[in-house]
Amino acid sequence: MNRGTVITEALDLLDEVGLDAVSTRRLAKRLGVEQPSLYWHFRTKKELLNAMAQAAMAPHATVPLPALPDDWRAWFLDNTRSFRHTLLMRRDGARLHAGTIPTADLDRIARKMEFLIASGVPERDAQMAMLAAGRFTVGSVLEEQADTGPANGPVDGADQSADIPVIDHESAFEAGLALIVDGLAGRVKG
Question: Which of 17, 76, 119, 121 has the fewest Cβ atoms surrounding its Cβ within 10 A?
């Protein structure tokens, strides 16, 4: 048993039982070891969850970085969609990710920021747009993963006579993302 095996099994356990049911006791049983042996690799459950969150983000963390003359708008949209897609790949992916600090991804984040700035986005606006898009995406996926109702169906207790269309999660996400990008476009220099 090594650190990678523990993380892989912990992510598989997450997909099977959900974040609330993931425990070091359950993980140790799954691995066929005593619970204290997990502490050799992870001193605390929080440390394990952070490692799981980092590993779960691997598909997004391997997407090629942008470079000039790439269009910043197209890249920003693709980057945020990739982040959403990666969070949706795991049961409770957004909850697992929420509150973690992307220490392994800091160089990539800096390169993304450099690209936006080189594309004419003011530095502070680039920071705020990346932060807003990240939080918007996590929030959107949290809502989507918490939704247990029928896809595109009416909300329980909703007034069926109202002419308010039901918006699916992806359409709502795309509309919000467009608002972020359109707002940022108004601040780009040159």
Answer: 17
Residues 51 and 66 in one domain: no
100: tokens are 């973690």
Q: What is the 3-state secondary structure (H, E, C) of 83-151?
A: HHHHHHCCCCHHHHHCCCCCHHHHHHHHHHHHHHHHCCCCHHHHHHHHHHHHHHHHHHHHHHHHCCCCC
CATH number at residue 125: 1.10.357.10
Please tell me the distance from the alpha carbon of residue 178 to that of residue 62, in angstroms, as a whole number: 24
Please report, for the domain that includes residue 12, its CATH number. 1.10.10.60
b/e burial code for range 138-156 (CB count within 10 A of at least 16 → b): bebbbebbeeeeeeeeeee
pTM (predicted TM-score)? 0.88
Sign of dihedral through CA atoms 60, 63, 66, 67? positive
Domain range holding 17?
3-56
Greatest C-alpha distance within the chain: 61
102-136 per-position pLDDT tens digit: 677 889 999 999 999 999 999 999 999 999 999 99
